[in-house]
Amino acid sequence: MDMSAARSGKNADRFDWDEVRFVLAIARAGTMSAAGGVLEVDQTTVSRRLKTLERRLGTQLFERDRGRMRPTGPGVRVIEHGERIEREMAALCHVVDDADTRVRGVTRITAVDTLITHYLARLVAPARAAFPTLSIELVAGNHNLDLARREADIALRLARPASGDLVIRRLGELGLGVYGAAGRSPSAWPFEAGCDWLAYDRDMMGLPEMVWLAERIDPARIVFRSNGIDALARAAADGLGLTVLPHIAAQAHDGLVRLPVAVPSRDVWMVVARGQRELPRVRSLADWLAARFAADAVWLRGGAAG
């Protein structure tokens, strides 16, 4: 039997991993007293813990050099392993904290305002019924929050991300249509009639529905712009002109009628940072949302609500 391996195993059995903190503190602070200040213990305790570890390992880890504690060769190796252990412990605490937030923490979902206002907000109550110990935050906005930096846990996007260490799932389609004020015959509003139109603001004209619209109308006929879907819907209901709206937003406004015009739908994508996907609070809510999107697929595309 390899006696060095046996001796190493024996040392490992008696090794107190908490003493690694003292080795790292001495290496970083440079003196016993400074390390004690960092660890909130006295210098004597630091010295005793170091000597205990050195005795167990059978080697000297530090030597004094002009009042400073300098690691020996074995000390450098212990510090390297200690820093690795420190990182692993931090990661372990991170996982435990995240698992604990399933019970008393927050899961944040970000999406465009239309999805938040006209769909996700109505899911909060049933989601809380399904997960009564989970707090939910909805963050609306057209800009993408950084999932890697945990600005959000789950993102619902209308364009598939092209980069990033992400887990991406297609949830379904968001249907769109052309809408105008009720009380007028849709047949009186063909594209050729030169009707007034309402559109997104110029920064959003690259979105697929606006590209589709720009190919069919004279831009001079756009009399009103807004980055708010509900503002466009209200203006259309007031008779200002025609506009392209998600069906779920149009259905929330009285006074609108849907024209018999086929508008390409938008895909809805669920995006989660890969490192977050297996956290129970994220995985459970993500799977629940996917099931709800599947159940509401017809309504989201513009059919009757299920």
UniProtKB/TrEMBL annotation:
Pfam families: HTH_1, LysR_substrate. Signal peptide: none annotated. It comes from the Bacteria. The keyword Protease does not apply. Coiled coil: none annotated. Keywords: DNA-binding, Transcription, Transcription regulation. GO terms for molecular function: DNA binding; DNA-binding transcription factor activity. Residues 15-72 form the HTH lysR-type domain. Gene3D superfamilies: 3.40.190.290, Winged helix-like DNA-binding domain superfamily/Winged helix DNA-binding domain. InterPro entries: LTTR, LysR_HTH_N, LysR_subst-bd, WH-like_DNA-bd_sf, WH_DNA-bd_sf. The keyword DNA-binding applies. Belongs to the LysR transcriptional regulatory family. This is LysR family transcriptional regulator. It comes from Nitrogeniibacter mangrovi.
